[in-house]
Write a structure and sequence with these properties.
Strand content: 15-25%
EC number: 2.4.2.14
Function: Catalyzes the formation of phosphoribosylamine from phosphoribosylpyrophosphate (PRPP) and glutamine.
Number of strands: 24
Largest sheet: 7 strands, antiparallel
GO molecular function, one term: amidophosphoribosyltransferase activity
Number of helices: 17
CATH architecture of the largest domain: 4-Layer Sandwich
Shape: globular
Pathway: Purine metabolism; IMP biosynthesis via de novo pathway; N(1)-(5-phospho-D-ribosyl)glycinamide from 5-phospho-alpha-D-ribose 1-diphosphate: step 1/2
Bound molecules: iron/sulfur cluster
Structural class: alpha+beta
CATH class of the largest domain: Alpha Beta
CATH topology of the largest domain: Glutamine Phosphoribosylpyrophosphate, subunit 1, domain 1
Radius of gyration: 22 Å
Distance between the termini: 22 Å
Pfam family, one: GATase_7
């Protein structure tokens, strides 16, 4: 099996693919940051397991000298004490990647490092642009030669190009933001500045932290806890923050749009983000507990025990139990050592792989009426196996509750939701899906509950409603540049 096919096999699960994680750090005291970026990336590993990288620079050294290491695989596979030791620098950016645009190859790993007339730029991107093909064509016609097939390179090119007519790197970032459309959280290292930017809709998270005299930018606040850093604040949707020793944090909000237009990816709260993260002031854990409570209110059923499908179904199961008064239990043991390189056999792979990953605890479910909570059903290829597993373990009834609405539409903003025809809920009623997965009853979270779940923050619900905050591209752009 080729390296590529191993990684692609690992993506075949019945969950929407995660996207990417970005991290940046600038230590004003001049200490090396690569070790801390490494631990930051470890904390963001759930956001992408295909490739990762760190690029650093020494702000007291020659301007434009950037050292970087990028590789396929997990953070602790790509890095070791020797290569981290060589990454000397007090400013740096890091990235963990899951490919939603561009294939899973070493060239497409980030951060991207770009040398141009004004110096060197290193960039880490989370999200997907909807106008990348047009922009890329425009750039190509004016002589740009691309090294990768990812849309992040389009952003890097535009920043480099705009820098020629801008007074500062952050001004160039702002000008580039005027051209790019879609979802992006960016962490950029210019020779003497750490810059963070979030698209005006706020699709993907980005926050600021501080430890001693060092500033941090990270996709999720859980990485700050790992480093013993304090949370400063979220980067606002549309904001550009520039971090320097002379001026601290400088904010440019000229690209911000009204709160009503904000469109954070609600799936960050439902599934992607770690439950110990806060995004825009809302606890991911709390939003999942609420989703479970809403399910209990809207779709009650008599039962003896509530269980979650690990890991992300657990919080919602707890919420369901709290609201309903039905005891919470642990019904599954998960094999924690399967990981990314799990290679499934070609035939019946999805069936057997579930059992390799999960096993039901007979002692917990035998003779019981079980409510089983999962965060989502995408293709429906694993739910039937899990329901069956509970029945084999002696469950008298299995009632499935899903802490998100049915997926009916694809995503163009950095989440790997497949085409409509592959979605089990497309053209099927809940009753039909219930029969397919073999449950006694099935209910999804009501779409109207999503706003309450995130304290009325502006959110995107496109994959549930088909109403996207930005018009989707006419062509399916995922993987566009590999064609
Ligand atoms: S379409 Fe769905 S997965 Fe994509 S950004 Fe919107 S809420 Fe998130």
């Amino acid at each position: 099996m080729t390296e590529k096919s191993i990684y692609e096999q690992a993506k075949v699960t019945d969950k929407p693919g995660e996207e990417c994680g970005v991290f940046g750090m600038y230590d004003f005291d001049g200490s090396d940051v690569s070790g801390s970026i490494y631990y930051g990336l470890l904390a963001l590993q759930h956001r992408g397991q295909e490739s990762c990288g760190i690029a650093v620079s020494d702000t007291s050294g020659p301007k434009g000298k950037v050292l970087s290491v990028k590789d396929m695989g997990l953070v602790n596979e790509a890095f070791n004490p020797e290569n981290l030791e060589k990454l000397k620098g007090d400013i740096g950016v890091g990235h963990v990647r899951y490919s939603t645009a561009g294939s899973s190859t070493r060239e497409n790993a980030q951060p991207l490092v770009l040398n141009y007339v004004k110096g060197t730029l290193a960039l880490a991107h989370n999200g997907n642009l909807v106008n990348a093909p047009e922009l890329r064509r425009d750039l190509a016609y004016t002589g740009a030669i691309f090294q990768t097939t990812i849309d992040s390179e389009v952003i890097a090119y535009y920043i480099a190009r705009e820098r020629l007519n801008s007074k500062s790197a952050e001004e160039a970032v702002g000008r580039a933001m005027g051209k790019i459309k879609g979802a992006y959280s960016l962490v950029i290292m210019s020779p003497r500045k750490l810059i963070g930017a979030r698209d005006p809709y706020g699709f993907r998270p980005l926050c600021i932290g501080k430890r001693d005299n060092a500033y941090i930018l990270t996709s999720e606040s859980c990485a700050l806890d790992t480093l013993g850093a304090t949370f400063v604040r979220d980067v606002l949707p549309g904001e550009i923050v520039t971090i320097t020793p002379e001026k601290g944090i400088i904010s440019d909000t000229s690209m911000c749009i009204s709160r009503e237009e904000h469109a954070r990816c609600v799936f960050e709260y439902i599934y992607f983000a770690r439950p110990d993260s806060y995004i825009d002031g809302v606890s991911v854990y709390h939003s999942r507990i609420l989703a479970g409570k809403f399910l209990a209110m809207d779709s009650p059923v008599e039962a003896d025990i509530v269980v979650g499908v690990p890991e992300s179904g657990n919080c919602a199961a707890m919420g369901y139990a709290l609201q309903s008064g039905i005891p919470y239990g642990t019904a599954f043991v998960k094999n924690a050592y399967i990981g990314r390189t799990f290679i499934k056999p070609k035939q019946k792979t999805r069936e057997s792989s579930v059992q390799v990953k999960l096993n039901a605890l007979k002692e917990v479910v035998n003779g019981k009426r079980v409510i089983m909570i999962d965060d989502s059903i995408v293709r429906g290829t694993t739910s039937d196996r899990i329901v069956h597993m509970l029945r084999e373990a002696g469950a008298k009834e299995v009632h499935m509750r899903v802490s998100s609405p049915p997926f009916l539409w694809p995503c163009y903003f950095g989440t790997d939701v497949p085409a409509r025809e592959q979605l089990i809920a497309y053209n099927r009623s809940v009753d039909v899906i219930c029969k397919i997965i073999g449950a006694d009853s099935l209910a999804y979270l009501r779409t109207e509950r999503l706003d309450e779940m995130v304290n009325e923050l502006g959110i995107c619900k496109g994959c549930f409603t088909g109403k996207y905050p930005i018009d989707p591209p006419e062509e399916d752009i995922r993987g566009e540049f590999d064609k």
